[in-house]
Amino acid sequence: MKILIVVTTLIGSLVIFIMSCIEWAPQFFYNKVVKHNFKSEWYSLDNYSPNFLTPIATQGFASKKNANEQFWHKFHFGDLYIPLPVKNPFYFVSPNLSFDKKNKKSKFGISINNAKGEKISDIYFLQNIKMPSLLSSQKLFELPLIRREITRKTTDEIWKDVFSEKIAMPDLKVEQMAYNLYLLQLRSRILKQNTLSFGFLEDRDVVVVQFDYANKDYLGELFMRKRGGQIYSFIIISRKENKEASLIRYKMVNDIEYVDSSPVLSDIIMKEFKSLAYKDQVDHVGMLYLLSAWSHDDSRKSILEKAIFFLERGFKNQQQLSPLYSYYLDRYKSVYSEKNVKDLIMNEKVKLQKNIHLESKAMQEVDVNSNEPITGEALTVEEQFEKIIKKSSTVKKEKHNTLRVD
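Given the sequence above, the corresponding C-alpha coordinates read:
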Protein backbone atom coordinates (compact mmCIF):
# COMPACT_ATOMS: atom_id res chain seq x y z
CA MET A 1 0.00 0.00 0.00
CA LYS A 2 2.78 2.43 0.93
CA ILE A 3 4.57 1.56 -2.33
CA LEU A 4 1.40 2.37 -4.32
CA ILE A 5 1.06 5.73 -2.59
CA VAL A 6 4.71 6.58 -3.34
CA VAL A 7 4.34 5.56 -7.01
CA THR A 8 1.12 7.56 -7.35
CA THR A 9 2.80 10.59 -5.80
CA LEU A 10 5.77 10.33 -8.18
CA ILE A 11 3.52 9.98 -11.21
CA GLY A 12 1.49 13.01 -10.09
CA SER A 13 4.63 15.05 -9.60
CA LEU A 14 5.90 14.01 -13.04
CA VAL A 15 2.61 14.99 -14.69
CA ILE A 16 2.69 18.38 -12.95
CA PHE A 17 6.32 18.86 -14.06
CA ILE A 18 5.53 17.92 -17.68
CA MET A 19 2.48 20.22 -17.73
CA SER A 20 4.62 22.99 -16.28
CA CYS A 21 7.23 22.46 -19.02
CA ILE A 22 4.55 22.53 -21.71
CA GLU A 23 3.11 25.73 -20.25
CA TRP A 24 6.50 27.45 -19.99
CA ALA A 25 7.97 26.16 -23.30
CA PRO A 26 6.40 28.91 -25.49
CA GLN A 27 7.43 31.61 -23.01
CA PHE A 28 10.99 30.26 -22.88
CA PHE A 29 11.20 30.08 -26.69
CA TYR A 30 9.75 33.59 -27.07
CA ASN A 31 12.19 35.16 -24.60
CA LYS A 32 15.15 33.40 -26.23
CA VAL A 33 14.18 34.79 -29.63
CA VAL A 34 13.45 38.32 -28.42
CA LYS A 35 16.52 38.69 -26.21
CA HIS A 36 19.12 36.61 -28.05
CA ASN A 37 17.81 36.09 -31.63
CA PHE A 38 17.48 32.34 -31.02
CA LYS A 39 17.08 30.43 -34.29
CA SER A 40 15.14 27.22 -34.83
CA GLU A 41 13.24 25.40 -37.56
CA TRP A 42 10.09 27.20 -36.35
CA TYR A 43 11.39 30.77 -36.44
CA SER A 44 14.58 32.63 -37.32
CA LEU A 45 15.63 36.16 -38.30
CA ASP A 46 18.47 37.05 -40.66
CA ASN A 47 18.37 40.73 -39.72
CA TYR A 48 18.01 41.36 -35.98
CA SER A 49 18.76 44.26 -33.68
CA PRO A 50 17.75 44.97 -30.07
CA ASN A 51 16.71 48.40 -31.35
CA PHE A 52 13.80 46.72 -33.18
CA LEU A 53 12.05 45.88 -29.89
CA THR A 54 10.88 49.28 -28.65
CA PRO A 55 9.45 52.08 -30.84
CA ILE A 56 9.74 55.70 -29.79
CA ALA A 57 6.21 57.02 -29.39
CA THR A 58 6.66 60.58 -30.74
CA GLN A 59 9.25 62.69 -32.48
CA GLY A 60 8.72 66.40 -32.97
CA PHE A 61 10.22 69.29 -34.91
CA ALA A 62 12.55 71.95 -33.55
CA SER A 63 11.43 74.47 -36.19
CA LYS A 64 7.98 74.71 -37.73
CA LYS A 65 7.83 77.90 -39.79
CA ASN A 66 9.09 78.50 -43.31
CA ALA A 67 9.68 81.97 -44.68
CA ASN A 68 9.64 83.02 -48.33
CA GLU A 69 6.98 80.52 -49.47
CA GLN A 70 6.81 82.31 -52.85
CA PHE A 71 10.27 80.97 -53.69
CA TRP A 72 9.21 77.30 -53.53
CA HIS A 73 7.66 75.22 -56.28
CA LYS A 74 6.54 71.58 -56.35
CA PHE A 75 8.09 69.07 -58.75
CA HIS A 76 7.10 65.47 -59.43
CA PHE A 77 10.10 63.21 -58.76
CA GLY A 78 9.36 59.49 -58.92
CA ASP A 79 6.50 58.76 -56.49
CA LEU A 80 6.80 62.09 -54.69
CA TYR A 81 5.44 65.56 -55.37
CA ILE A 82 8.11 67.58 -53.57
CA PRO A 83 8.59 71.30 -52.78
CA LEU A 84 11.95 72.72 -53.88
CA PRO A 85 13.45 76.23 -53.81
CA VAL A 86 13.22 78.07 -57.14
CA LYS A 87 15.00 81.39 -57.69
CA ASN A 88 15.32 81.47 -53.94
CA PRO A 89 17.90 83.94 -52.57
CA PHE A 90 18.52 81.67 -49.56
CA TYR A 91 18.80 78.20 -51.14
CA PHE A 92 19.69 76.54 -54.42
CA VAL A 93 19.38 72.97 -55.61
CA SER A 94 21.90 70.56 -57.13
CA PRO A 95 21.42 66.93 -58.24
CA ASN A 96 22.74 64.08 -56.10
CA LEU A 97 23.29 61.09 -58.37
CA SER A 98 25.28 57.87 -58.21
CA PHE A 99 25.20 54.61 -60.16
CA ASP A 100 25.66 51.16 -58.64
CA LYS A 101 27.63 49.37 -61.36
CA LYS A 102 27.21 45.96 -59.76
CA ASN A 103 23.42 46.05 -59.41
CA LYS A 104 22.85 48.42 -62.35
CA LYS A 105 20.75 50.75 -60.21
CA SER A 106 20.68 54.50 -59.76
CA LYS A 107 20.58 56.36 -56.46
CA PHE A 108 18.82 59.63 -57.09
CA GLY A 109 18.35 62.64 -54.86
CA ILE A 110 18.55 66.39 -54.50
CA SER A 111 20.96 68.47 -52.41
CA ILE A 112 19.76 71.77 -50.96
CA ASN A 113 22.56 74.28 -50.45
CA ASN A 114 22.56 77.64 -48.72
CA ALA A 115 23.53 80.93 -50.36
CA LYS A 116 27.22 80.24 -49.58
CA GLY A 117 27.12 76.95 -51.46
CA GLU A 118 27.23 74.83 -48.28
CA LYS A 119 25.12 71.67 -48.33
CA ILE A 120 22.53 71.66 -45.55
CA SER A 121 20.20 68.84 -46.66
CA ASP A 122 19.99 65.85 -48.99
CA ILE A 123 16.67 64.34 -50.06
CA TYR A 124 16.71 60.90 -51.69
CA PHE A 125 13.73 59.55 -53.64
CA LEU A 126 12.93 55.88 -53.04
CA GLN A 127 10.68 53.67 -55.15
CA ASN A 128 7.48 52.63 -53.40
CA ILE A 129 7.22 49.01 -52.27
CA LYS A 130 4.37 46.63 -51.55
CA MET A 131 3.40 46.00 -47.92
CA PRO A 132 5.04 42.61 -47.25
CA SER A 133 3.04 39.59 -46.09
CA LEU A 134 5.12 37.06 -44.17
CA LEU A 135 2.53 34.38 -43.40
CA SER A 136 4.46 31.79 -45.39
CA SER A 137 7.89 32.87 -44.24
CA GLN A 138 8.06 30.90 -40.96
CA LYS A 139 6.86 27.47 -39.91
CA LEU A 140 5.44 29.09 -36.74
CA PHE A 141 2.99 31.22 -38.75
CA GLU A 142 1.59 28.17 -40.53
CA LEU A 143 0.01 26.86 -37.32
CA PRO A 144 -3.78 27.41 -37.63
CA LEU A 145 -4.13 29.14 -34.23
CA ILE A 146 -1.30 31.57 -35.03
CA ARG A 147 -2.38 32.24 -38.61
CA ARG A 148 -5.91 33.02 -37.41
CA GLU A 149 -4.54 35.55 -34.88
CA ILE A 150 -2.55 37.37 -37.58
CA THR A 151 -5.14 37.32 -40.38
CA ARG A 152 -7.91 38.75 -38.19
CA LYS A 153 -6.07 42.09 -38.33
CA THR A 154 -6.15 44.45 -41.31
CA THR A 155 -2.94 45.59 -43.00
CA ASP A 156 -3.52 49.10 -41.59
CA GLU A 157 -3.71 47.66 -38.06
CA ILE A 158 -0.57 45.60 -38.61
CA TRP A 159 1.28 48.64 -40.02
CA LYS A 160 0.32 50.68 -36.97
CA ASP A 161 1.43 47.90 -34.61
CA VAL A 162 4.75 47.43 -36.41
CA PHE A 163 5.80 50.97 -35.52
CA SER A 164 4.03 51.48 -32.18
CA GLU A 165 3.87 48.17 -30.27
CA LYS A 166 6.61 47.24 -27.83
CA ILE A 167 7.78 43.63 -28.05
CA ALA A 168 6.99 42.92 -24.39
CA MET A 169 8.70 40.32 -22.18
CA PRO A 170 6.05 39.64 -19.45
CA ASP A 171 3.67 36.66 -19.47
CA LEU A 172 1.57 36.67 -22.62
CA LYS A 173 -0.85 34.34 -24.34
CA VAL A 174 0.66 32.09 -26.99
CA GLU A 175 -1.25 33.95 -29.74
CA GLN A 176 0.08 37.34 -28.61
CA MET A 177 3.66 36.06 -28.41
CA ALA A 178 3.39 34.69 -31.95
CA TYR A 179 1.89 37.97 -33.22
CA ASN A 180 4.74 39.90 -31.59
CA LEU A 181 7.23 37.67 -33.40
CA TYR A 182 5.37 38.44 -36.63
CA LEU A 183 5.76 42.18 -35.92
CA LEU A 184 9.43 41.65 -35.13
CA GLN A 185 10.01 39.93 -38.45
CA LEU A 186 8.24 42.72 -40.32
CA ARG A 187 10.54 45.22 -38.61
CA SER A 188 13.57 43.17 -39.57
CA ARG A 189 12.33 43.15 -43.18
CA ILE A 190 11.58 46.91 -43.38
CA LEU A 191 14.30 48.33 -41.10
CA LYS A 192 18.06 48.09 -41.59
CA GLN A 193 20.70 46.88 -39.15
CA ASN A 194 21.91 50.46 -38.57
CA THR A 195 18.52 51.62 -37.23
CA LEU A 196 18.86 53.73 -34.07
CA SER A 197 15.19 54.48 -33.40
CA PHE A 198 11.78 54.37 -35.09
CA GLY A 199 8.18 55.37 -34.47
CA PHE A 200 5.28 57.50 -35.67
CA LEU A 201 5.58 61.26 -35.81
CA GLU A 202 3.31 62.95 -33.32
CA ASP A 203 -0.25 63.47 -34.68
CA ARG A 204 0.75 62.07 -38.09
CA ASP A 205 0.48 58.81 -39.97
CA VAL A 206 4.13 59.18 -41.01
CA VAL A 207 6.81 56.85 -39.67
CA VAL A 208 10.31 58.19 -39.06
CA VAL A 209 13.33 55.91 -38.78
CA GLN A 210 16.60 57.41 -37.55
CA PHE A 211 19.64 55.51 -38.76
CA ASP A 212 23.36 55.67 -38.08
CA TYR A 213 24.79 58.01 -40.76
CA ALA A 214 28.49 57.91 -41.66
CA ASN A 215 29.01 61.68 -41.38
CA LYS A 216 28.29 62.47 -37.73
CA ASP A 217 27.64 66.13 -38.55
CA TYR A 218 24.42 65.06 -40.27
CA LEU A 219 21.22 63.34 -39.14
CA GLY A 220 19.96 60.45 -41.29
CA GLU A 221 16.21 59.77 -41.35
CA LEU A 222 13.90 57.56 -43.40
CA PHE A 223 10.27 58.69 -43.67
CA MET A 224 7.53 56.23 -44.63
CA ARG A 225 3.81 56.38 -45.20
CA LYS A 226 1.41 53.58 -46.09
CA ARG A 227 -1.31 54.19 -48.67
CA GLY A 228 -3.44 51.18 -49.53
CA GLY A 229 -1.08 48.27 -50.03
CA GLN A 230 1.94 50.45 -50.91
CA ILE A 231 4.67 51.98 -48.76
CA TYR A 232 5.98 55.36 -49.95
CA SER A 233 9.29 56.57 -48.57
CA PHE A 234 12.09 59.11 -48.84
CA ILE A 235 15.30 59.88 -46.97
CA ILE A 236 16.38 63.23 -45.54
CA ILE A 237 19.97 63.88 -44.49
CA SER A 238 20.04 67.08 -42.39
CA ARG A 239 22.92 69.06 -40.97
CA LYS A 240 22.71 68.80 -37.17
CA GLU A 241 21.99 71.88 -35.05
CA ASN A 242 21.22 73.90 -38.17
CA LYS A 243 18.05 76.00 -38.20
CA GLU A 244 17.80 76.02 -42.01
CA ALA A 245 18.10 72.23 -42.18
CA SER A 246 15.39 71.90 -39.53
CA LEU A 247 13.08 74.20 -41.49
CA ILE A 248 13.61 72.20 -44.68
CA ARG A 249 13.00 68.92 -42.82
CA TYR A 250 9.70 70.27 -41.49
CA LYS A 251 8.63 71.51 -44.92
CA MET A 252 9.43 68.22 -46.64
CA VAL A 253 7.55 66.08 -44.13
CA ASN A 254 4.48 68.37 -44.18
CA ASP A 255 4.28 69.36 -47.85
CA ILE A 256 5.42 66.26 -49.75
CA GLU A 257 2.57 64.49 -51.52
CA TYR A 258 2.59 60.86 -52.62
CA VAL A 259 1.72 60.42 -56.31
CA ASP A 260 2.42 57.34 -58.42
CA SER A 261 5.08 57.54 -61.13
CA SER A 262 4.58 56.57 -64.79
CA PRO A 263 6.91 56.67 -67.85
CA VAL A 264 4.18 58.65 -69.66
CA LEU A 265 4.90 61.59 -67.34
CA SER A 266 8.37 62.03 -68.89
CA ASP A 267 6.95 63.40 -72.16
CA ILE A 268 4.39 65.56 -70.37
CA ILE A 269 7.06 67.21 -68.21
CA MET A 270 9.35 67.61 -71.24
CA LYS A 271 6.63 69.70 -72.90
CA GLU A 272 6.50 71.88 -69.77
CA PHE A 273 10.27 72.36 -70.01
CA LYS A 274 10.02 73.44 -73.67
CA SER A 275 7.45 76.07 -72.73
CA LEU A 276 9.92 77.75 -70.32
CA ALA A 277 11.72 80.94 -71.27
CA TYR A 278 15.29 80.31 -72.44
CA LYS A 279 16.76 82.03 -69.37
CA ASP A 280 14.92 79.48 -67.20
CA GLN A 281 15.89 76.53 -69.41
CA VAL A 282 19.60 77.28 -68.85
CA ASP A 283 19.08 77.83 -65.10
CA HIS A 284 18.43 75.37 -62.26
CA VAL A 285 14.69 75.73 -62.96
CA GLY A 286 15.07 74.00 -66.31
CA MET A 287 17.33 71.39 -64.73
CA LEU A 288 14.62 70.50 -62.18
CA TYR A 289 12.04 70.00 -64.94
CA LEU A 290 14.42 67.78 -66.90
CA LEU A 291 15.46 65.71 -63.89
CA SER A 292 11.80 65.36 -62.95
CA ALA A 293 11.09 63.99 -66.45
CA TRP A 294 14.09 61.65 -66.21
CA SER A 295 13.00 60.32 -62.79
CA HIS A 296 9.95 58.70 -64.39
CA ASP A 297 12.04 56.87 -66.98
CA ASP A 298 15.75 56.82 -66.12
CA SER A 299 16.58 54.79 -69.24
CA ARG A 300 16.22 57.94 -71.36
CA LYS A 301 19.81 59.03 -71.70
CA SER A 302 18.78 61.89 -74.00
CA ILE A 303 17.09 63.72 -71.11
CA LEU A 304 20.32 63.71 -69.09
CA GLU A 305 22.20 64.98 -72.14
CA LYS A 306 19.67 67.77 -72.55
CA ALA A 307 20.13 68.73 -68.87
CA ILE A 308 23.92 68.96 -69.38
CA PHE A 309 23.52 70.80 -72.70
CA PHE A 310 21.37 73.59 -71.22
CA LEU A 311 23.27 73.91 -67.93
CA GLU A 312 26.52 74.40 -69.88
CA ARG A 313 24.94 77.41 -71.57
CA GLY A 314 23.81 78.96 -68.30
CA PHE A 315 25.58 81.00 -65.64
CA LYS A 316 27.20 79.62 -62.47
CA ASN A 317 25.90 76.08 -62.93
CA GLN A 318 29.15 74.35 -61.98
CA GLN A 319 27.72 72.73 -58.84
CA GLN A 320 24.80 71.32 -60.83
CA LEU A 321 26.92 70.05 -63.71
CA SER A 322 29.64 68.15 -61.83
CA PRO A 323 27.40 65.35 -60.47
CA LEU A 324 25.75 64.93 -63.88
CA TYR A 325 29.14 64.45 -65.59
CA SER A 326 30.18 61.89 -62.95
CA TYR A 327 26.94 59.92 -63.12
CA TYR A 328 26.94 59.87 -66.91
CA LEU A 329 30.51 58.53 -66.99
CA ASP A 330 29.80 55.84 -64.36
CA ARG A 331 26.68 54.62 -66.13
CA TYR A 332 27.55 54.98 -69.82
CA LYS A 333 31.37 54.76 -69.66
CA SER A 334 31.67 57.95 -71.70
CA VAL A 335 31.38 61.70 -71.23
CA TYR A 336 28.72 63.96 -72.63
CA SER A 337 29.68 67.63 -72.95
CA GLU A 338 29.23 70.28 -75.63
CA LYS A 339 31.08 73.18 -74.07
CA ASN A 340 34.05 73.90 -71.84
CA VAL A 341 32.92 75.20 -68.43
CA LYS A 342 35.49 76.83 -66.14
CA ASP A 343 35.92 76.32 -62.38
CA LEU A 344 34.33 72.87 -62.25
CA ILE A 345 35.00 70.94 -59.05
CA MET A 346 35.10 67.22 -59.83
CA ASN A 347 37.43 64.26 -59.47
CA GLU A 348 40.46 63.93 -61.73
CA LYS A 349 39.12 60.90 -63.60
CA VAL A 350 36.00 62.74 -64.74
CA LYS A 351 37.96 65.91 -65.51
CA LEU A 352 40.45 63.97 -67.67
CA GLN A 353 37.71 62.14 -69.58
CA LYS A 354 35.84 65.40 -70.15
CA ASN A 355 38.97 67.13 -71.49
CA ILE A 356 39.71 64.22 -73.83
CA HIS A 357 36.12 64.29 -75.07
CA LEU A 358 36.21 68.05 -75.79
CA GLU A 359 39.64 67.85 -77.48
CA SER A 360 38.47 65.01 -79.69
CA LYS A 361 35.33 66.95 -80.55
CA ALA A 362 37.34 70.09 -81.37
CA MET A 363 39.70 68.13 -83.61
CA GLN A 364 36.78 66.62 -85.51
CA GLU A 365 35.26 70.06 -86.03
CA VAL A 366 38.59 71.46 -87.29
CA ASP A 367 38.95 68.52 -89.64
CA VAL A 368 35.45 69.01 -91.05
CA ASN A 369 35.90 72.79 -91.45
CA SER A 370 39.32 72.59 -93.09
CA ASN A 371 38.56 69.52 -95.26
CA GLU A 372 42.14 68.43 -94.56
CA PRO A 373 43.12 65.04 -93.12
CA ILE A 374 44.82 65.16 -89.71
CA THR A 375 48.19 63.50 -89.89
CA GLY A 376 51.05 62.99 -87.47
CA GLU A 377 50.58 63.51 -83.73
CA ALA A 378 47.19 64.58 -82.39
CA LEU A 379 47.13 68.29 -81.70
CA THR A 380 45.83 69.82 -78.48
CA VAL A 381 42.86 72.16 -78.48
CA GLU A 382 45.22 75.16 -78.16
CA GLU A 383 47.33 73.99 -81.13
CA GLN A 384 44.20 73.43 -83.22
CA PHE A 385 43.00 76.92 -82.29
CA GLU A 386 46.33 78.46 -83.37
CA LYS A 387 46.11 76.53 -86.63
CA ILE A 388 42.64 77.95 -87.34
CA ILE A 389 43.81 81.52 -86.60
CA LYS A 390 46.83 81.08 -88.85
CA LYS A 391 44.71 79.67 -91.68
CA SER A 392 42.20 82.50 -91.28
CA SER A 393 44.97 85.14 -91.50
CA THR A 394 46.35 83.52 -94.67
CA VAL A 395 42.94 83.56 -96.32
CA LYS A 396 42.45 87.24 -95.46
CA LYS A 397 45.90 88.11 -96.89
CA GLU A 398 45.17 86.25 -100.11
CA LYS A 399 41.86 88.07 -100.47
CA HIS A 400 43.58 91.44 -99.88
CA ASN A 401 46.10 90.79 -102.69
CA THR A 402 43.46 89.61 -105.16
CA LEU A 403 42.44 91.98 -107.97
CA ARG A 404 38.69 92.17 -108.27
CA VAL A 405 37.32 92.10 -111.80
CA ASP A 406 33.64 93.08 -112.27
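Confidence is low (pLDDT under 50) at residues 4-24, 392-406. Try to locate this feature in the C-alpha coordinate string yourself.
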